[in-house]
Design brief:
- The protein has six helices and 13 strands.
- The chain is α+β, with helices and mostly antiparallel strands and 245 residues long.
- Strand 4 (51-56) and strand 5 form a beta hairpin.
């Protein structure tokens, strides 16, 4: 039986004098390819006098383009959505035969489509800590899913998680040097590692919803002590046969 959860997100800016707001592009709507089913969604914007055009970018993400004709002292966006929290098996997929073991190569047609997600940062590639970390990753053939799980486990042990309120994303070198970073910093580090290993990877952002367990776990962590929601970021890799994982 699935659980329905309601999420409310408010972003509010106030100004000390009337200002002209330029066109705003808002990315606060779950993508249509999200594995979590969205049962309802609404966005309320202030000032009430505005024009809105819903668009989709080349990756099918929803974009709301807002234009405000009048000056204002406040800009407020409120999102309400209801999501269906179903239990999903993240390993419920089959890989194409050529991708069952890492390393593998994408077929030419797929590689052409995935080209934007295989772009390596040349500056990152030349930094000493990143290069040493990349060189230390074993390349001998291994079942692809096991390889990716072990890489995630290693990164989780090597990079401490912290809540970082500063804007922007750390460089992979900075994250490795400090052995810590926020979710977006670890996600970008993993994206660059996977791309340098020849795998298509992308940076994803969204909402994290975690609920307290009804029954305490007997053989591991029970999870959060209270329900909470936050903005989150993670990395996805493209596996032939499975798609984006």
């Amino acid at each position: 039986m699935s659980i329905h959860v309601a999420l409310n997100h408010v972003t509010h800016y106030r100004y000390d004098r009337p200002i002209n707001l330029g066109p705003q592009v808002v990315r606060l709507r779950p993508a249509p390819h999200s594995r979590t089913r969205i049962l309802s969604y609404s966005m309320r914007v202030e000032p009430a006098t505005h024009f809105i055009n819903w668009q989709q970018d080349p990756q099918s993400n929803y974009l709301a383009r807002l234009v405000f004709p009048d000056k204002t002292t406040s800009f407020r966006i409120e999102i309400d959505l209801v999501a269906e929290m179903s239990v999903l098996n993240p390993f419920d997929f089959f890989l194409e035969p050529q991708a069952e073991n890492f390393p593998f190569d994408y077929d030419p047609a797929l590689k052409h489509e995935l080209a934007p997600y295989m772009v390596k940062d040349p500056i990152t590639a030349a930094t000493p800590l990143f290069k040493a970390y990349l060189d230390s990753i074993p390349r001998k053939p291994k079942q692809t899913t096991n390889f990716l799980v072990e890489l995630n486990q290693r990164l989780q042990k090597d990079i401490g998680y912290l809540i970082r309120m500063e804007p922007g994303v750390q460089t992979p070198e900075f994250t490795l040097e400090n052995a810590s970073g926020s979710c977006r910093d670890s996600a970008w580090l993993l994206v660059q590692i996977l791309r340098h290993l020849g795998l298509a990877a992308r940076f994803v952002s969204g909402y994290l919803i975690q609920l307290t367990a009804d029954v305490k776990s007997l053989d591991g962590p029970s999870g959060p002590e209270k329900d909470f929601t936050d903005l989150h970021a993670w990395c996805e890799v493209y596996l032939p046969g499975a798609g984006w994982v």
